[in-house]
Amino acid sequence: xxxxxxxxxxxFKGSFTSTLRWHQLDGLWAxxxxxxxxxxFIYAVGEEPPQNPVSANDLNRFIDEIDVFxxxxxxxxxxxxxxxxxxxxxxxxxxxxxxxxGVSCGFSHNPPLPGWILSRIAPxxxxxxxxxxxxxxxxxxRIFS
Length: 145
Fold this sequence. Notes:
It is a single chain. This protein is an alpha+beta fold. The protein has one domain (3-143). 35% of the residues lie in helices and 12% in strands. Strands 1-3-4-5-2 form a five-stranded antiparallel beta sheet, with no helix packed on it. A hairpin with a 7-residue loop joins strand 3 and strand 4.
C-alpha cells in the first residue's frame, strides 16, 4: 500500500460531521466556493479515481450540479447525507447517494460507500460494493465530458 493510499484511507475512516440541515450544506458550499482553489480531487466512487485535482471552476460546477441533484433526489426537509471532516475548514467531504443510503450515519459492519468524495488528498480506488447505476454514470460523465 502506498503512503498516499494510507493517508487517504486514514482520512476516509476519520471523524466526520453531518450537514444535517440544508442551510448547513449551503454554508459548506459557500465556504468551498469562497476558498476555491485548484487542490480538490472529485472522486465518483465506482469510477477510476482521479489522478489530478480539478480546477476551481470545475469544483464550483460540481458543487452547483451536486446541490441540484441532492435537493431533487433527497426530497426531505433535512439534508444529513453530506459529511465533512471539519465544517469550518473542510479537507475531506463524503456525499452519499440518496438512493443508496443503507446505514450511513449509524453503526454497520458493511456501511455503504459514499457516491462522491471531495478531498484534498489524492484518492485511492475504494472497493465498490455496488454497481454504479448507468444513470449515475451518465450524470457524472455529463459534468466532466
